[in-house]
Design goal:
Radius of gyration: 29 Å
Distance between the termini: 26 Å
Strand order of the largest sheet: 7-6-10-9-8-5-11
Number of domains: 4
Largest sheet: 7 strands, antiparallel
Structural class: alpha+beta
Helix content: 25-40%
């Protein structure tokens, strides 16, 4: 499982654009992969044919040509008479080069040259594009994107490459950027068109908007408009959608699926949330460039190019929950292959779930049927049990469970579990886990469940070779193969560098907004909000805990903790049941899970403090909602 932890997901903004053949008669550019960009440059008088009438779209673009394209598209007209020693006034692009240099978009070499006829490298192009981004005052955001050949990029050019890739203007191939490779005129045209789309140039968007109707499982109709606003005004029926380049970009209702790993800018918690590809989300609305979605209660926006919209009437299928022999099973649908791809059981099924029926949920808490009618809500005990809980299992019982589980995995015949009973890094961890629980007040079984999930029961390469049970520092964009001297050191690092300061302690470490509830949770609350992009990561870990309980006799669920949720923002947690003292800490957001240890404290609930504290903590009963958990 790849993480995000301290790394914001970096992603491409715009895919290759398609040309509407109705806009121009067929010629040498018709059907070209970069036709849209080429025609855009032509419309700006930046690209002109040669004496034979050809645009030479597949030729390498020169430094002079690329500077001229930018100058023309940006409508640069000011010159401070910057002169390069190899750009005479008679050179075809001399004036455009002066304009671009005056605007700060290009610079020359230390010998005073510009080398206008040299084919431009991809890294030099990225630098010019970044300067154009600055000139246009386009927000660059924060990016630390890297490619597999990052070391081949000139160090001072790496930020420009990262910005271009982050904004979707330039892309790599199979994880490589190929900095020294030259770009074609066609590719340069697409890069510039993407730049100008970001700048809001409507002329850069030459695609038409078509209204179609959903009828008998298909899209019919061909009413076209030159701009999104007019198409949107023409929508009169709930079964109508707006299509651009054969892609639905607006509908009345349905769901949204991420095409790849993205970052959702959540307006709910004012933070970036990593989201894996093939994640289903609620559709709330859209315009020509972005889609408003809700993921487990987190409302935010994603770019149209990052998602696919599915009207309910056109869906082939979707992920669902079911009651399988009294247990809740989550079956995941892959929208790229149109097949069910995985499933897992993670607890007892709630009472309202009937066998042989499908249930749907955006957050794993509130469930509906296929028509959207509410069927009930359920909080899985293991998924929403705060980390400060203490398991009732002894070190020996945990070791016995690990031994039996490894034998089970080994007998499965899967190659990864070959010799698991003798090689797994989980062997003999019971005492270590219980010692950690006593020292750090973090549930030993929770740590074990996390280790099982992240390390394939201690048999993954990172576990075997690096003693890394938790995928620490294995970021999506730049995995760091850190070698831990022992599994114990790895567990200590997880607790002391990640969970304790960032994910459990309210407020988290300075500058880090990872504390969204001290539970493994979901994208609604808990570690899962930021720790992993998989929206079901918390539920899957809960499944490991549940299956361990099932094997060991349900000692924890048999004597459960009482769990409540906070109901207000800015809630102070006190060291005594009175407001006459300074708070231990404050919950910035509502919906934070707490363990209630005493409900009879004169209008206060006694709770276990999420911040390490030797005694109990207290919250006014007015601000706690006790929840029923399924266990």
């Amino acid at each position: 499982m790849k993480k995000t932890l301290n790394v914001t997901l970096l992603f491409a903004l715009i895919t290759t654009l398609l040309w509407n053949p109705g806009i121009a008669t067929a010629d040498e550019l018709t059907g070209h992969a970069h036709e849209n960009g080429l025609r855009y440059l032509i419309s700006k008088n930046a690209l002109v044919p040669d004496t034979n009438g050809s645009y030479n779209a597949n030729n390498n673009v020169t430094r002079g040509e690329f500077a001229s394209y930018l100058s023309k598209v940006l409508n640069l007209t000011e010159s401070n008479e910057i002169q390069f020693n190899d750009v005479p006034d008679t050179y075809a692009y001399a004036l455009d080069i002066k304009f671009a240099a005056t605007a700060g978009i290009i610079t020359g070499y230390s010998d005073g040259s510009f080398k206008p006829t040299a084919a431009i490298s991809r890294q030099h192009m990225a630098v010019m594009l970044e300067r154009a981004i600055d000139y246009l005052k386009i927000p660059k955001g924060t990016s630390s994107i890297t490619f597999k050949d990052n070391d081949s990029i000139v160090a001072e050019y790496r930020p420009a490459v990262a910005v271009g890739a982050h904004l979707g203007i330039i892309n790599g191939s199979n994880g490589y950027f190929m900095p020294e490779k030259n770009a074609t005129i066609g590719q340069a045209a697409t890069f510039i068109q993407r730049l100008m789309l970001l700048a809001g140039d409507q002329e850069a968007n030459v695609s038409t908007y078509i209204i179609k109707e959903v009828s008998n499982g298909a899209l019919v109709g061909n009413q076209s408009f030159t701009n999104f606003a007019d198409a949107e005004k023409a929508l009169t029926k709930n079964n109508q959608v707006i299509v651009q380049n054969d892609k639905i970009i607006k509908m009345s209702s349905g769901f949204v699926v991420t095409n790849k790993y993205v970052a959702l800018a959540s307006e709910t918690i004012k933070d970036q949330i990593p989201v894996a590809g093939n994640t289903e989300m609620e559709y709330l609305g859209s315009d020509a460039t972005q889609v408003k979605v809700r993921l487990a209660g987190q409302v935010g926006y994603l770019k149209q190019t990052d998602v696919t919209l599915f009207p309910f009437a056109l869906k082939k299928d979707r992920s669902y929950y079911s009651n399988e022999n009294g247990e809740i099973k989550h079956v995941i649908y892959d929208h790229t292959t149109n097949k069910y791809s995985a499933s897992y059981i993670y607890g007892k099924a709630p009472a309202f779930m009937k066998p042989n029926e499908k249930y749907y949920s955006w957050d794993g808490i509130y469930f509906t049927n296929d028509s959207g009618s509410s069927k009930g809500n359920a909080y899985n005990y293991y998924q929403f049990l705060p980390a400060r809980a203490t398991t009732q299992y002894t070190a020996q019982e945990i070791d016995d469970y690990i031994t039996n589980k490894l034998a089970e995995m080994e007998s499965s015949g899967a190659s990864i579990y070959k010799d698991a009973t003798t090689k797994s890094k989980l062997i003999g961890l019971g005492t270590t886990l219980k010692d950690m629980e006593a020292k750090h007040q973090i549930n030993a079984m929770l740590i074990l469940a996390l280790a099982q999930h992240e390390s394939a029961y201690g048999m993954s390469d990172h576990a075997q070779k690096l003693n890394n049970l938790f995928g620490l520092y294995v970021y999506d964009t730049n995995p760091l193969n850190k070698n831990f001297e022992s599994v114990t050191a790895n567990i200590n690092e997880l607790i002391e560098k990640f969970l304790q300061p960032n994910y459990i302690t309210p407020g988290g470490a300075p500058g880090k907004n990872f504390a969204n509830g001290a539970v493994i949770g979901s994208k609604a609350m808990g570690f899962n909000v930021k720790y992993a992009s998989d929206p079901y990561w918390g539920a899957k870990i809960a499944g490991h805990y549940y299956r361990a309980e099932k094997a060991m006799g349900f000692k924890d669920a048999g004597n459960p903790y009482t769990i409540g949720l906070t109901t207000t923002t800015g809630l102070n947690v006190r060291p005594e049941p009175t407001t006459g003292n300074s708070p231990l800490f404050t919950y910035a957001r509502s919906g934070m899970p707490v363990i209630v240890t005493n409900s009879d404290a004169n209008g206060w609930y006694e709770v276990i403090s999420d911040k390490l504290h030797t005694g109990p903590a207290y919250i006014s009963k007015e601000y706690i909602q006790i929840i029923e958990t399924v266990k």
